Protein: Tox-MPTase4 domain-containing protein
Organism: Arcobacter roscoffensis
Amino acid sequence: MAKIIYTDNLKEGIGGSFTPPLFPPVLNLFGIGNGTIKIRKKYIKDKGILNHELCHEKQFKQNWFHIFRYRFSKKYRLECELEAYKEQIKEYKYKKFDKCKWIIKALHEKYNLDMSKEYLKDRVYEIWKKESVKK
Ligand SMILES: [Zn+2]
């Protein structure tokens, strides 16, 4: 598993990050290549953020090319982030879609996706809807 560090040494406005290792996941077998999860100190009890970053670790472990696809494909980046934000929606148990506003805003502003807010709203609505019927 990735090393988890609680630190404020993160870009402004970022609550957590996953930094993949430089090595392919197969080297995990030898104890290297695990990557690092950084979480802002004030979120030390926030399981949602932790699960978001663990989801990125899982994506990385499923396919090493994840790093490149994530960097170069906006479409792929969106799918990865939706999967990760779903973990937060699940954890926070949002009953109203209104609560997801900050996620739409983050997707619109922080990931260089070049996608309309309307489209992002629809995509977040899809995952919120799926989670909200489970309860
Ligand atoms: Zn993310």
Q: What stands out?
A: The helical segments are 47-62, 66-72, 74-92, 101-110, 117-134. The chain has two domains: 1-72, 74-135.
